[in-house]
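[Automated response] Your request has been received and processed.

Submitted sequence:
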Amino acid sequence: QVQLVESGGGLVQAGGSLRLSCAASGRTLSNYGMGWFRQAPGKEREVVAAISRFGSSKYYADSVKGRFTISRDNAKNTVYVQMNSLKPEDTAVYYCAASNFQISAVVAGEKMKYDYWGQGTQVTVSS
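Generated structure:
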């Protein structure tokens, strides 16, 4: 089993940047495909970005393409998402998740394909 802890959230003005981190413990991170999801009040949890076990494949929601970059450092057991040009509509609780599945374009956005979740970190973008 793997435990995930997100950090790096906060309050930022529109146009600003944040980098979220997801630290894993319990098992080696390279065993898992990883995803970042977000959930705004009253909305479904949605995928933001996903990355394969060794980083060779990455997937992004259309709403964040060109603004967000997912990466991972398996030696540090950590996954990141760099978020630039933030917009008020990016306001949400952001979660990282680990999947035993091979991350693909189909799997990336499927919440049920992720086995472990962090507690989330709040990101608030003011206009």
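Summary generated for your ticket: The longest strand covers residues 18-25. The chain has no helices and eleven strands.
If you did not submit this request, please reply to this message.
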